[in-house]
Specification:
Helices cover 30% and strands 30% of the residues. With 161 residues, the chain is of the alpha+beta class.
Length: 161
Amino acid sequence: MSSVINSINSANMKAKVVAVRSGDTVRVHQKVREGNKERVQVFQGLVIKTSNRGNHMSRITVRRFSGGIGVEKSFLLHSPLVVKVEVTKRSKVRRNYLSYMRSLTGKAARLSGVDFDRQSVNDVPDAETKPEMTEQETKVETEDKASETKVETSTSKENKA
């Protein structure tokens, strides 16, 4: 029974997801359907909670101020509606659940930033571009092998002469 559940869970997981932690400022790109049209909406804010990391049900709760009112949204990271998550700022925090940020405003709500490599954190290969890269790599490899065989045959002819 558990193997069936694990196989269903692994089938619903994305190949790779950005490693998001509490205290990160993230920009979440989410698909929104309005009538017959579909567009991508961006929600940027502070991650105040992460749960079920490494699971297909991993969830983040993002908080931001909109019009002077605090707005929170929860996102399932492996959901097909979440197109992309990018970390814009990483802060030093010592908790997983930053509920105290709800009562803070202004300067008191600022967190101290930490230096991090933004490109390596946000670099998640797309499943669609992966096969294209492998096709290009195979073309390059076959060209390299063909050139190596030409070089080997020419050097062996020179050695015999």
